Amino acid sequence: MTDTRAAARIDLDPLRRWVVILPALAAMGLAAVLQPGVAPVLAAGAVVTVMALVLLRRPSLALPISEQDEPDVSAAGAALAAEALEALPDPLLVIAGDDAEDVGDRAIVRANAAAAALLRLPSGGQDHPLHAAIRDPNLLEAIDEALFGRRTQSIDYEPGGAQDRHWSAWVAPLPGHGEAEGRLAVLRLRDETDSKRAEMMRVDFLANASHELRTPLASLSGFIETLRGHARDDPAAREKFLSIMAVQAERMTRLVADLLSLSRIELNEHIPPSGKVDLAGAVSDVVDATGPLAARRGIRLKVTREGEGSASVTGDRDQLIQVIQNLTDNAIKYSPDDTEVEIDLRVGVGADDAARVRTPNAAGLPLLTPDRDSQARYVLITVRDHGPGLARETMPRLTERFYRVEGQKSGERLGTGLGLAIVKHIVNRHRGGMTVESIVGEGAAFGVYLPLRVAAP
């Protein structure tokens, strides 16, 4: 539209000038005839007017009129490309390197917002050393092949960290940026965590279910065969076998439910929750729910709190209640009758303080450590029992699926061996940490710490 207006102005301006000048020349000629004394002055004015008209009609002098209204096409295109780059959901980087031998020569010259957030690059990542942001040797080798071998390829990339992520990395050289112009390559990362986790979930579920359900199914088959045979007319044996069958069926139901719950949690483990949860209220709800079960065995639930301010975190309330519920159930299950289970809530602790062993002479171990952030403050929940305790050599395996400590009795109901694995994956999704400490014969304490919710400015 601007070009059309400029063209119209260029076409109409000469016509307007002639409309004004021609009557002026005619008037000057008439005046010269009527007044001979002013003829030289009028003639000079006519010459100047005609020269000015000729000069104005020259294209070189008419250019500034159109140039003032022409937009800067190159600048607008660059700005539009930059905005499109920032809006892309996939991380995208432009990488430069001129020396094939000097690994430290590789630098990130441009990164969009998604890449800067993923790799924690300051100020868009401009001139940031590549090896400081990416340490995977396979990906670094692929980038070098794009820079110096002009080769395009796709590889798998797993950056590591507390949350296991799977990326598909595509690397290609930028056309027109070879040895003479300066070598540039583009790196695009695509998140394939969802598909990888879905595939792993199917495989793990089938493997775990087929392994863990084999024993109770075999027991049920044997009892059914016995009831159809010589125990058919024995009321006492029939009642005994039916009772055992009911326990096995209940265990299979809980096992399938826990496996499905764990699979769903692992599937979304890399996606942080967004809700607001008051952990003090969640602890209170769990105590109300588990109080009757503990009271039947004379076990008292004692809740204490330290620290000022709100105990709110960003999270999924149902999952966090499941965390506290599982830890409290375990503490009740392994506690002797007429003892105490202590639930301690501490607000505003640092990561190092949250992971510290508090019981003198106790063996402790971090079961899950969040990505390091010295500025973060956490809410720490510690559930302590006074049961048989745990030997140090058993601690690293506590969050494995179906792992059970040999020789320990767990009360009336046999667990599925998935409770602590579920706790670990939920806490990891909430970007928190998990610890255990114990003294054999005196009890164990499990701690879970979650980052405090930061109030919006």
UniProtKB/TrEMBL annotation:
It holds the Pfam family HATPase_c. One of its GO terms (molecular function) is ATP binding. The chain crosses the membrane at residues 15-32. Keywords: ATP-binding, Cell membrane, Kinase, Membrane, Nucleotide-binding, Phosphoprotein, Transferase, Transmembrane, Transmembrane helix, Two-component regulatory system. Its EC number is 2.7.13.3. Residues 208-454 form the Histidine kinase domain. GO terms for cellular component: plasma membrane. It is an enzyme of class 2 (transferase). It catalyses: ATP + protein L-histidine = ADP + protein N-phospho-L-histidine. It is found in: Cell membrane. InterPro entries: HATPase_C_sf, HATPase_dom, His_kinase_dom, HisK_dim/P_dom, HisK_dim/P_sf, Sensor_HK_Regulatory, Sig_transdc_His_kin-like_C. It comes from the Bacteria. This is histidine kinase.
